[in-house]
Amino acid sequence: MLLPSIRIGNEITMNESKYNLLNHLLTSILAGFLFSLGVGLIFGIKMIGINESTHQFRLAYPFLLNFVPMYLLLGVIFGAAVGLLGTLLFRKNGAQRGFGFPAALGMSFLAFLALFIIFRAPLGPIAGMFLGLLVFTAASSHRPPLSRLYFAVFLTAIAFNYSWQWVRQHFIINPLMPIDQAKTLDFIFTLIWALIFLLGFRLFIKALLRTPIRAVYITGVSVVVLILALGGLYYFAGPKPVSAVAAQPPEITRRPVDVKVAVIGVDGLWWKIIDELFAKDELPTIKRLRENGTSGNLGTLYPTFSAAIWSSISTGKSTEKHGVTSFLIWKFPWTGFTLPCFITPKITAEMDWMRKSLIITAPMNNQFLESAPIWEMLSDHGANVGMVNWWLSYPAYPLNGFNVTDHCLYNKEYVMENFKTREGDTPYDLYPMDLMSEIKSFSRSPESLSDEEICRFITVADSDRAFLKEFRDIDTYDYLDIAYEASMFKYSYPEDATFAAATRYLLAEHQPEVLCVYLDGMDSMQHQYLKYYFADEHRDKLIPRNAVRYRHLIENYYQYIDETLASFIAAADSNTIFMIISDHGFDAEIMPTGHYNHMNAPPGVFLCAGPGIKAGYRIENAHVYDIAPTILHLMGLPVAADFDGKALTDIMLDPGTVETIPTYDAGRRASHQVIQSDMDEAYKDKLKALGYTQ
User: Fold this and answer.
1) Which of 28, 283, 295, 645 has CB 3.0 to 4.6 Å from 626, enough for a Cys bridge?
2) Is the peptide bond before 303 cis (omega within 30 degrees of 0)?
């Protein structure tokens, strides 16, 4: 409880002796606490709205209860800082009438400059505004009560901060044409915006300082408390989700089969580009597969978040059933509450601090899958299965075959210099662990790329050979760096090369009945470089020398994938059915960030060829839900009645009878356990570079 001397809304003058350190400190903390309560609630509701994983009330309400306290902590910290400044500025005889507006602006500038020099980033706007507004208020001889003074401070600081972030996002940061000295320009712009804001505030300060603060505080707190109370009442008294019924798994007799299946997932593979390259006769392997097999669109989910789509591919079920709707998991402090969450509002720079200092963020893992993935269904019923870099294959647990997870090989051998590193393997990276001795040599690092490899994808003219050194010096995805354009290729291609080489070896030496490999480089390349493939549409937005360098990168990468597929076919048994799938195409327009995206993209690619598959057949209405049931049927196993998809029997020459069972999920419970690893920071930085996260 505040001391009796702190009377919100009274008209004590600044000359009274009660204006001591404790008064200033507690009043400022109270103002910061109340403002952060409101801001935390507003952005908490915004977070729930933009993250599909939080749309259910049973998740949204505890999310708010865990999210808002982090803002309250910020409010207390900033309140204490402002209260200390207020004490210094308003101590007895500390505010002189002659200390005018220019001096206030000068002190604000010096405070901002000092913070900029210390942190080497524009972290000073809020603190600079605090100091500037306090000095301005004192210099202008305004003598409001403390409650109104600190109300004005926080209102102005919050309005300035979020307006500054919005303007900066839209007018200063331009990933299409990164500019040298961008941080200096950012610094200058921030000062100009602060001056404009202070000048505008000065026009309204008298009206602001006459605001009935007691009514504002009481009304604001009452509204927030009422919202949380009503939410809590509904949370505890409202309907509860129906629990899954535990049951014994049904007896399954596997039908004998004489084929194998290799599923190659190529993220972002797009029929539009394939068809254009077909016309140039540049993709012979894909063209041959299409002529000798079945092809068509693969219906997908919207929005096209890869984590959700590939989980539906793996389980044959919707997001509502398998539960994966996010790339990342948030684990909140104090309570340990975990929730899939990855999108944040673009003007909330403070969330960077929260994620670094308070929240544990980790890539989604299979401990959040509410439904059995295809490798468990196959392995549990006698099929020998091999997984390579597949979505949510981490952590790896024993199965009838092997599991080279997406945490293995590439991220173990190389982590960018500015990422968190932790050497050594974990027992969950790979199963069985002794397989590492066989495949470790296939790991590639960005440093291992030869000049010939780089020049195969990126056009480097003789007059531009200095670019190769610039390329090798890249160690960040920072989009204000003009060289960053090459970083997506530098860190994505070696990953594909690593897992492609491991897959060729495992196909030839271990010959699993079902092999699933995931290659994500194509998606990364198209996010970053499609603007150069469609350069004729963006001539006025592209750096000329980069337009030359990356003009043919997409075309070259499709050719690389085509060659990779040919090498898989050569390594596999002759009785192998190859199924090439993608999760989506791409949108037709470029984003303001400089990326191409795929939130409303066309369907993905479905291509299947091999023994027993119809040749030259065009399939209609195939969907990502259909992949798991189709694999099960090809492998002689029944299809579950609770799948949202079906076995694609119309692609088969002799489909036979599709047997069914109620479910593969009898008694299954997801542990919702966050498992951190040494590749987490690399993964999160890549999501940021692709434009998925802030």
Assistant:
1) 645
2) yes
Q: How many CB atoms lie within 10 A of CB 207?
A: 8
| Amino acid making up residue 575 | N
Question: Final residue of a domain: which of 237, 268, 295?
Answer: 237
The number of folded domains in the chain is 2
Q: Strand 260-266 to strand 576-581: parallel, antiparallel, or no bridges (unpaired)?
A: parallel
Burial per residue of 535-564, b for 16 or more beta-carbon CB atoms within 10 angstroms, e otherwise? beeeeeebeeebbbbbbbbbbbbbbbbbeb
Q: What is the DSSP secondary-structure string of 218-230?
A: HHHHHHHHHHHHH
The CATH number linked to 558 is 3.40.720.10
Residue 690 lies in a domain: no
Contacts of 8 (CB under 8 A, 6+ apart): 27, 30, 145, 147, 213, 214, 217
For residue 73, the enclosing domain spans 21-237
Give yes or no: residues 220 and 298 share one domain: no
- Tell me the C-alpha distance between 491 and 489, whole Å: 6
Q: What is the pTM of this model?
A: 0.79
Looking at residue 346, the DSSP 8-state letter turns out to be T
Peptide bond into 544 cis (omega under 30): no
Tokens, residue 673: 């356990």
Phi, psi of 613 (to 5 degrees): -105, 135
Q: In angstroms, how far is the first alpha carbon of the chain from the final one?
A: 38
How many other C-beta atoms can be found within 10 angstroms of the C-beta atom of residue 181? Answer: 10
Q: What pLDDT, in 10s, does the model give residues 173-232? A: 655 555 555 666 667 777 777 777 777 776 776 676 677 777 788 888 888 888 888 888
